[in-house]
Specification:
heterodimer; A: alpha/beta; TIM Barrel; 10 helices; 38% helix; B: 189 residues; alpha/beta; Rossmann fold; nine-stranded mixed β-sheet; three-stranded mixed β-sheet
């Protein structure tokens, strides 16, 4: 069953959204948005603290605690997870899965440690990628630092290390609503034995249908939901009409 | 009062929130209480790690005798697997053995299985949320009362008298999941 996952990027101001990781603006209150997407039939929620690599993480923990009281859906949380203790804090606050990005590039064993402590199904490798001729490069630190590492190779290594899921964001497409990078997800889905969550570029049902057809197991989207261009329910019905297997 | 058995896993908050939403108080216990009539054995993570943690805290004998004397016991996800005797995931680790059978790796191209699946045989709950790499293989197939499919079909619900196990997460399966959890625990608890 394919999953539709609204993504809530949070900082001190609440939920924010930008274009290609830049030009952030506030789009709403995290708990209110989470409740709305829950009611609309979202399959999961993702919260990413986009300021946490630079500052503290407390706002995200507060949000998770409040969401967990009201919303009975699987939640993935990430942003600034550097140590096992960070992952544990997020899980204790109410997250079911933890997304690890920059810290895994710096110290890949963190993935193995997290998987053996919490189980592989709990460990999501988050990767931000940018196209280069002939492939994709990994970019760390919230999209600011090129890691000189091939994205597909890094995903394969993360799988061996114990990650349970791949959340791959195309920085080129992020926030543009111009469609997912289909080639990226086609190659990833074919190469990986892990579920792949596609992120970046959703403009409408057709884009999401295309990326699921390309092999992604789940589609993450932010702008189209935050701006209410389409509800999660409307999207899922449109996908079902196109023959996708989604939960309605 | 519902007793939540802590097998060393992190996210017990969601379960407690779900129980609170259903109007029940719960208590997380690392070690066995003097008495308990309704118990939940949750769990995420590795079978061996959780089994060892349960054993260290004296739960093995305690849960076996509680189940034998009629206490209601519900295993969720890894907790369901721990009700069985052993798991391919952690050879040599001793499960509770309250249900006969073993746990084996899911046969599918992409593992872990993460996401929603349709349930067969469970009228009250058409969909449920799963996050697992292993599935139970009961020695007595008649205890299986619900199935789900991912790669292959496998047991999603087992029931044997006062003992039940669900491979999915009812506390993460929205309103219908919570309602199902209520029926598993019995309205009177």
């Amino acid at each position: 069953m394919k999953r539709i996952i609204p993504c809530l990027d949070v900082n001190e101001d609440g939920v924010v959204k930008g274009v290609r990781f830049d030009r952030l603006r506030r789009v709403g209150d995290p708990v209110a948005l989470a409740e709305r997407y829950d009611a609309e039939g979202a399959d999961e929620l993702v919260f990413l603290d986009i300021a946490a690599t630079i500052r503290g993480r407390r706002p995200l923990l507060d949000i998770l605690e409040r969401v967990a009281e009201r919303v009975f859906l699987p939640v993935t949380a990430g942003g600034g997870v550097r140590r096992i203790e960070d992952a544990r804090d997020l899980l204790l606050a109410g997250a079911d899965k933890v997304a690890i990005n920059t810290a895994a590039v710096q110290r890949p064993e963190l993935l193995s440690e997290a998987a053996s402590r919490f189980g592989a199904q709990c460990v999501v490798l988050a990767v931000d990628v940018r196209r280069r001729p002939g492939g994709w490069d990994v970019v760390t630190h919230a999209g600011t630092y090129p890691a000189d590492r091939d994205a597909l190779e890094w995903c394969a290594r993360a799988e061996r290390l114990g990650a349970g899921e791949l959340l791959v964001t195309s920085m080129d497409a992020d926030g543009t609503r111009s469609g997912y990078d289909l080639e990226l997800y086609r190659l990833l889905a074919a190469a990986s034995g892990l579920p792949v969550i596609a992120s970046g570029g959703a403009g409408g049902a057709e884009d999401i249908h295309d990326v699921l057809e390309a092999g992604a197991d789940a589609a993450l989207a932010a702008s189209i939901f935050h701006e209410a261009l389409m509800s999660v329910g409307q999207l899922k019905r449109a996908l079902a009409q196109r023959g996708q297997e989604v939960r309605l | 009062m519902i007793t939540i058995v802590d097998s060393g896993t992190s996210n017990l908050r969601s379960l407690q929130n779900a129980l609170r939403r259903l109007g029940w108080e719960s208590e997380v216990r690392q070690a066995p209480p003097s008495a308990a009539s309704t118990l939940i054995l949750p769990g995420v993570g590795a079978f061996g790690h959780a089994a060892e943690s349960l054993q260290l805290n004296g739960w093995h004998e305690w849960l076996r005798s509680a189940a034998a004397s009629g206490a209601r016991l519900v295993g969720i996800c890894l907790g369901m697997q721990l009700l069985f005797e052993s798991s391919e995931e952690s050879p040599g680790a001793e499960g509770l053995g309250i249900l006969k059978g073993r746990v084996r790796r899911l046969n599918a191209r992409k593992v872990p299985h993460i996401g929603w699946a349709r349930l067969r045989g469970v009228d009250a709950l058409p969909w449920a949320y799963f996050a697992h790499s292993y599935v139970a293989e009961p020695a007595d197939p008649s205890i299986v009362s619900g199935w789900a499919r991912y790669g292959e079909e496998w047991p999603a619900v087992v029931r044997a008298g006062n003992v039940a196990g669900v491979q999915f997460h009812p506390e993460k399966s929205q309103g219908p999941g919570l309602a199902y959890l209520r029926t598993l625990l019995g309205d009177g608890s």
